[in-house]
Amino acid sequence: MLSHVRIAKTRRRPAHPAGTGVPRPGRAGGGGVLSGLLRAGGAAFILQVLGGGWYTDRALGQQLRDTVVPADRGRIYSADGVLLAANSSCWTLRASPREMPEDKLALAAKGLAEILELDEGKLLEKFSDRHSNDCLLRYRVDRAMADAVRDFCEANGITGIRINQDSKRWYPQGEFLASVLGFTNVDNAGVSGLELKYDDLLTGENGVVLTAVNAWGYTLEQSYETERFPTEGDGLRLTIDSCIQHYLENALSYAVQEHHVAARAVGIVMDVNTGAVLAMSTSPSYDPNEPRVIADTAARNTVEALTGDARKAALQLAQQTQWRNKAVSDLYEPGSVFKLITCAAALDAGAITKHSSFYCGESISVAGTRFHCANHKRHGAQSVTQALENSCNQSFIQIGARLGREAFCDYFAAFGLREPTGIDLPAEPKKSLYYTADRMGPVELASCAFGQSSKISYLEMAAAVCAVVNGGKLMQPYVVSEILAPDGSTIEQLSPVCKRQVLKAETSQTMREMMEAVVLYGGGRNAQIPGYRVGGKSGTSQKLDSADEKARIASFVAVAPIDDPQFLCLVCLDEPHSWTTAGGSLSAPVCAEVLEQTLVYKGVPRITEAPAASTAETAADLPADGDSFDGA
After folding, report:
1. C-alpha dihedral over 440, 446, 449, 454, to 10 degrees?
2. Whole-model pTM?
3. Of 53, 120, 124, 403, which shows the fewest CB atoms inside 10 Å?
C-alpha cells in the first residue's frame, strides 16, 4: 500500500499571472458591453451545454493526481502448506522536479546518487527539467534505503521527492523448486514457470490514490486524498509435496556433484494413478530472488573470464540455461528406458507373448547395418523378461520387427510421445522428434525399438511409464491442484485428466512383473529398497547430436510399490563424467533413495517377506550395468 509520507511542499502561483489580459474598468462602451455579454453568453452556452463533458473531464484531470498502488500477487503453496511464493514490502522512489527547490538541485543529485547508487550527472539532468512533474528514481528499494532517502531530504530541506510503498515477489525457500515456480520481472509480471503460466490469475487489481492538485500540478494546501484499495491476486496450491521435493533435490544435487554432471540433471516424481507431479527438479538450480545471478559456480567462472560482447553473450546464455525447466522443455534420447514402451506395445498388440524367445549373438544385421549390445555382450537365447533384464538391443530389434513400423508408430502416438503432455507449465515443446511410418525404414525401426533415433521430453517419458504400470491409462501431468482466493479459501479444485486408455489391464500387469524382475535380477539391482517391491528400467543413451561421441545420458525410472503402483521416479544425468556412464549404476541409486524416503513419509508399510534376488547364472553373468546404447 502507498506510504502517505510525502516529502513535497506546495508552492502557490499568483492568482493572475502577468500577461493574462485581465480587463480594466471603464474601457468598453455600452454597446461594446452588450455585444461582449452576448458573445460571452454564447461561448458559455457552447462550453456548458455542447462541450460540457470534455471540459469537465479535462478540468478534473487537472485537479486530481492519481497514484497507482500496486497489488500483491497471489501466493503459492505446496501441497502440504509450505509458502513458496509471497510478497514483501518495498519502496519505489520518484521525483517531481518542478516541486524541488532550484538552489538545492545539485545537493539533491549528489546525496541521492550516493544513497541510491545512481549516476549523479544523470540525476542532476532529471532534476533540472523544471517542466517535469514526475520521474522515476529507483524501483523497489528496501526499507533501509527508503529511510536513508527520507532522512537526507528532511535534513536538507529537499522537497519534491516521493517515497511510494510498493510490493515485490519474494521466494522464502530460495532455490527450492525454482525451475517450476519461475520468477517475475521489475514490473512484477511473470517471466517463467508458474509465475508466467498463471500470470493473469496471480496478478491482483491495483489500487489508486487520488490527490488534489492545482492547474500547474502542485498539491493543494487544502488537499484531500481518496483511495481504492488494491486487491491481491488469486493463489495456487500445488501438487508438489515439499518433503518429497526436498528428497529429490538433495539426492539429485549430490549426484550432480559426485558424478561431475556437465549438462545438468533432471528428476521427476509422479503419482502414477493421477498424473500429479509430486516433485520436479533441474540441478543445478538458481535463486529466483536473484534470477540474473549465475548460481552454478563453473558457469559463473566461465562468464567472468570473458570480456566485452563475448561476456555479454555468455552471460545471457548462462541465464537462459539456468532458468530453463529441463524436465519440461528439453528433448532427449531416452535410450533403453524406452524398451518398456516397445515391450508393452508388442505384448498389447499380440506381436509377442511373455513366453516368446529371442537370440542374441555377436551382432545382428538389419538392411546392411550391424547392431550389437553394450560391451558387445552375447546374451544367447532369452525370454522377453530376460531380454528386458539384460537390456538386450538385439532382442528388442527383433521385437520391433515383429511389431512392425505401423503398429510401432501407432503406439508411440498413443503413449503421448508425439505431442505435448499438456502440463500446466510453459515452454513445453509443441512436438517431439520422431519417425512417422512412411519415413521409417528397417534400420530406423531397429534403432527406435531400443530407444535411439527419437527425441522426446523427460516428462513425456515419465508420463508414458506411468501408463505402462497403472493399468494402461495415459494421465495428463499437472502441478496445480487448487485455485485459492486471497483469504485462502478454494475457488476451484482441479481434477486428474485421463487422456486415453493405451494398454489393456493385463498387459500392464505383465509389464509390472517384468519390471520387478529387472530390479531383482537384472540391470536395475541398484534400485532395490529393503522391504519394498520395486520395478524399473535403466537407460544409457548416446547423444547423437553431440560433438562429443562419448556423451551419454545416464537414466533410470523406478516405480514402487510395483505390486500396487503409487510412485514413479525418473532420474536423468546429462553427460556425467564418472567411473561409468551407465544409468543402472549412477541413476538407479538416486531413484532408490528418493522412493524409499517417499514411501516411509507416506506411511507405506514395509513387507516382511520381499522376493529374493536371484542367484541364477543369467543374473550373475551380468556386468555391473546390463544397459546398452548405440548401434554400430
Report:
1. -50
2. 0.86
3. 53
